[in-house]
Amino acid sequence: MPPPAKNFLATEQVSKLQQALKESDQPHVRERILIILLQNDGKPQHEIAKFLGCSHRTVAYWCMHGDPDNLETLHNKREYEHYRKATPEYIELLLKTVDKEPSELGYEFGRWTAERLATYLNEQTGIELSSSQVRRILKRKKYSYIWSKYDLESKQNPVERAKFQEKLAQYLSIAREQPENLQVWFWDESGFSLRVIRRKNWGRRGKRKNVPGQRRHGRVNIMGAIRESDRKRVCFFIKKGNADVFYEQLQQLNNLIKQEWVNKGNRPEDFSRLGPKIILILDNASYHKRQDVLAKISQEFPNFVLEFLPPYSPDYNIIELVWHSCKEYIAHRLFKSVDELQSLLDKLLNQGELVIKWHRRIKNKGNMNYVAA
């Protein structure tokens, strides 16, 4: 079959293709549109292939099968079949839902994710789409999912950070070579809320939503520690963080480490004298430094040495990766109650069900976690 003559497309067809080229966010679809448009300009197939950096076979196929009157033919069949599951009514409800606050529909969480939207729309319409399919529809409708900016580097003291990093490196070196003599633990507190912080939200491109800062409705508070050598985690559910609670949870951590030591055949009464030194890395929360509590820790837990992070340096605390991974996991799930949330948190944090990428960078939160390297 001879190739079509130059300018074989009607003006209306060209306009339709050019508009689709602007609106599509899928590279393979844009490539196929360009193949048809360049063919319409009279370019031979080998020149089109060279210009687009694709194979001659690809160009030949889409010159033959690309239908300028039916743009569905330019999509992968499987992809478009999934998209077509969404009826016009489904898409209309999706766009109405994404523009509403979740609280307007009776939910306690604070932001829509594609996963939550897919779950809600399935309940309302009976049409089951995956989160990626919902995300694709939103992108077609010019919605985007935007991260807010969050950076601590301007507040950090590089000299203090360098000194701390050197000291921490020494501790870690000894702990890895002599785990029976030294352990390094990282301590922190965090809260997990049904109404999560909305660092991202769906909205029309070019129009950033203003979102209220309500964060504490239905909240689970946790104090926890993680040992660097084996990533052992110990997390305690608390009502509120303060100095007295900090002391109580530290006492539990001391008892746990002591019991591990006793289980190896040592006598409990020898722990303070012969047990390992425990370096506890923690931030500068005021209740971590209350003088009467520090005095009790020094007297009752002689194995402990508290080392405070430089200001604005959460990246030196590997437990931040635990909190981040956990919040990332629960962000896509619907919870009917605080008890349901706490039950899942216990499985994730204390029963080893949370998978953590230790070498990852926490998006929009300061620097890389150096200690995870």
SSE inventory with pairings:
Blueprint: H1 11-23, H2 27-40, H3 45-52, H4 56-65, H5 77-84, H6 88-98, H7 114-125, H8 131-140, E1 143-145, H9 158-177, E2 182-193, E3 202-204, E4 219-227, E5 233-238, H10 243-263, H11 271-274, E6 277-282, H12 291-300, E7 304-308, H13 319-330, H14 338-350
Parallel strand pairs: 2-6, 6-7
Antiparallel strand pairs: 1-3, 2-4, 4-5
Helix pairs in contact: 1-2, 2-3, 3-4, 7-8
What features would you describe in this structure?
With 373 residues, this protein is α/β, with parallel strands linked by helices. It has 3 domains: 11-75; 80-141, no CATH class; 153-372, Nucleotidyltransferase, domain 5 (2-Layer Sandwich). The chain contains 14 helices and 7 strands. It has helices at 11-23, 27-40, 45-52, 56-65, 77-84, 88-98, 114-125, 131-140, 158-177, 243-263, 271-274, 291-300, 319-330, 338-350, and strands at 143-145, 182-193, 202-204, 219-227, 233-238, 277-282, 304-308. The strands form 2 sheets. The protein has a 5-stranded mixed beta sheet with strand order 5-4-2-6-7, sandwiched between helices.
